[in-house]
Write a structure and sequence with these properties.
Length: 704
């Protein structure tokens, strides 16, 4: 997904839901050709108002005369004086009620009955599922907006009053309950759209949501229109068919999914940069040269973003660092090949975005009324076939699974001390014998990624012939869009779990750095005391001592990484014993410039004493960091931004036993891992987390 497209859409979205649109504002102008996905989401989720342009009103009025003229001339007009679909061989003599009839008969979807909705705890068996049988209000609002936008193009032969009536429902926040299932998105989304048509007619068989947000109730459409002082619409020729015969529902649902998918794609790049830091990886993998010699647009964008996100990090290893034997020379694939992995997804998302954007500003109806000539034409075709939306959603859902696979792999590496470059097992801040902190989260992410794998399967390949064989080709676009939303929910949970793990890992890195700063002079002084090194101005001797010390310190840091799974008491004993061969070698070669007859015995005593001092230093460093944890000074620009958002804005703490269990001293309420992940997940789903994400992306845009 091109950087400028994502940013412009986000900025447009923020503008639409901001203070620019007061309650008395006309809002977004609807002309049939100017919608973008940010507007769809703003209207659907945030109630941004809309209005028709004067030009749209003029064109619609002209299209009505074309239909009337054709009927006066005795011509056959599909859906006006014929039957519908496979029954189009029937000719209609009495046209007065045919539009209302087809709308009512299309209302065949399954919805929970009012008694079930109002009394979930009535006597009887417990429900098998709490899954709703109707679409979320936001989906229906998106569908209403897009159907209005299509009709406003003036190719459907409907009166402006019909379109205005749908806009009145949007403005009054009267939203019909639309069944979740039942559309094959072939002749458009016939059944779902019939409930919108029923709502503007004031049908007593259509229920609607009404009332202020947070206190919504359901009533029948006739009651809602009466209470809002809105007149019911009487359908004229073709108007019932014109409302139901389009892709507005599948397109609206897809548009909302696409907006979220683009945001999650950017988040995945931010999380990848944080993973590079948490695993002490290299920025080199994202050097521009790699994309220059393999110039896939998605790879270029992902590499540029991640490279920029890592700016200022004190955790990433520099390109010229000399790694010692036994240390991994290159990063593992989960971060080293991240730009090559994400890149094709970004390209797929860009195409999917364009497909949906085009559909949002298209006429999807049959027949079409061509008003460009003086007398006009009525044309029969198949512009309602929603395969373009299916194509977009299949790509998007597969991309979601691909992103999930990368995040899952990165997350599992953080948890595993054999792969994490010294992070404790399960990212536990306490002793490994007393806490297995994020081990269950490791299992959770495996479950989530497995589900994403299932959800990535094609929906559009399960077509069944329908409607007397007339709709033998059907797109299943709405089904595909619905499951894309499910996949987005799962990916959001996976991203939330990964972000929690990353912040925990980064705190552990900062804790370790603070310990190393305290431990290094302690160990150096201990070695000076062991060898009784004199303070002399001898350049050669000082150089030898520096080489000796560097070897000791490198070995010590390596041992700290290798023993991270051990209990502290045992760990430091093991470390100091493992240093003995180096110390004995230094003594035997005389590189320390001293001698001692009792050196071996002295070394054993030295090991015991200083292992204890090291453990004491570690405990003090840990407790000091626990009092005021802050990893941000070590982090790159993106990681610092996200870390502060999680820790400060969301209030998700650095997890350790002290805050996860009730303290008699403080009386603090205990916290669970699940609660912390849920807080982050909620910020993803309501969009708050994407503000710092887009701020990180804006920085890249300003640099490029």
């Amino acid at each position: 997904m091109a950087l400028h497209t994502v940013l412009s859409q986000w900025q447009s979205f923020i503008k639409q839901i901001g203070t620019e649109f007061k309650e008395d504002s006309a809002g977004v102008a609807i002309d049939g050709k100017s919608l973008d996905l940010s507007i769809v989401v703003a209207v659907a989720r945030h109630g941004t108002p809309v209005h028709l342009t004067d030009e749209a009103l003029r064109i619609m009025q002209h299209s009505i005369s074309v239909i009337q003229r054709a009927l006066e001339q005795g011509k056959v007009v599909y859906g006006v004086n014929t039957g519908f679909g496979g029954s189009a061989d029937t000719r209609i003599l009495e046209m007065d009620n045919i539009q209302s009839t087809i709308v009512q008969e299309l209302q065949c979807g399954i919805l929970n009955m009012p008694a079930v909705l109002n009394d979930l705890y009535s006597p009887g068996p417990l429900p098998l599922s709490h899954e709703s049988t109707c679409m979320p209000e936001s989906w229906v609002r998106a569908a209403m907006l897009l159907r209005v936008n299509s009709l406003a193009c003036g190719f459907s032969g409907v009166r402006p009053v019909l379109v205005r009536s749908i806009l009145h429902l949007l403005k009054k926040d009267i939203i019909p309950q639309v069944p979740l299932r039942g559309s094959i998105s072939a002749s458009g989304d016939l059944m779902p759209l019939s409930y919108i048509a029923g709502a503007i007619q004031g049908s007593p068989n259509v229920r609607v949501w009404t009332g202020v947000r947070g206190q919504r109730v359901t009533v029948t459409a006739d009651v809602a229109l009466r209470d809002a002082s809105l007149p019911p619409v009487v359908l004229h020729p073709k108007e019932g068919l014109a409302i139901v015969n389009g892709t507005a529902v599948s397109t609206g649902v897809a548009a909302m999914a696409m907006q979220d998918a683009n945001c999650l794609a950017v988040l995945s790049q931010v999380l990848t940069s944080m993973t590079v830091e948490a695993l002490l990886g290299s920025r080199e993998s994202f050097d521009p040269l790699f994309a220059q010699v393999r110039p896939h647009l998605g790879q270029i964008e992902a590499a540029r973003n991640i490279y920029s996100f890592l700016a200022g990090s004190r955790l990433v290893k520099s390109a010229d660092i000399e790694l010692n034997e036994g240390l991994l020379y290159q990063d593992r694939y989960s971060i080293r090949t991240a730009s090559q992995w994400i890149g094709p997804v970004l390209e797929d998302f860009q195409l999917a975005y364009q497909q949906i954007l085009t559909e949002c500003n298209s006429v999807t109806d049959n027949p079409l009324v061509d008003t460009r000539e003086l007398i006009g034409r009525v044309l029969n075709g198949g512009n309602f076939q929603a395969r373009a939306i299916t194509s977009a959603m299949e790509k998007t859902r597969q991309g979601i699974q691909t992103i999930g696979q990368m995040l899952f792999t990165q997350c599992t590496e953080l948890m595993n001390p054999r792969l994490s470059q010294g992070l404790p097992p399960n990212l536990a801040a306490d002793n490994p014998s007393s806490s297995w902190l994020l081990k269950p989260l490791d299992i959770l992410t495996a479950a989530l990624q497995s589900e994403l794998g299932f959800l990535s399967s094609s929906a559009g390949s399960h077509v069944q012939p329908a409607e007397m064989g007339n709709q033998a080709l059907n797109s299943l676009a709405l089904i595909s869009a619905r499951y894309t939303h499910t996949a987005l929910e799962v990916l959001s949970q996976l991203a939330a779990a990964h972000l929690l793990s990353l912040c925990q890992a980064l705190d552990l890195r900062a804790l370790h750095q603070s310990f190393l700063q305290a431990f290094e002079p302690l160990l150096k002084n201990a070695i000076i005391e062991l060898f009784n090194i004199p303070n002399q101005n001898n350049k050669e001797r000082e150089d030898n001592q520096d080489l000796f010390w560097n070897a000791i310190w490198v070995k010590t840091k390596k041992l700290l990484n290798e023993t991270v799974s051990m209990e502290s008491k045992i760990r430091f004993q093991v470390i100091f014993k493992a240093l003995q061969p180096l110390l004995l070698d230094a003594y035997s070669t005389g590189s320390a410039a001293f001698s001692s007859q009792d050196f071996v015995l002295k070394l054993q005593d030295w090991t015991q004493v200083n292992a204890g001092k090291a453990m004491e230093c570690y405990v003090i460093s840990r407790e000091t960091y626990f009092e005021n944890p802050d990893a941000s000074p070590l982090l790159g620009v993106a990681a610092s931004h996200m870390y502060k958002f999680v820790r400060q804005t969301l209030g998700v703490p650095f997890l350790r036993r002290e805050i996860m269990f009730v303290s008699e001293k403080t009386g603090r309420k205990r916290v669970t891992v699940g609660e912390c992940v849920s807080i982050i997940y909620a910020s993803i789903r309501d969009g708050r987390l994407f503000t710092p994400v887009m701020e990180c992306l804006s920085r890249v845009h300003m640099e490029s």
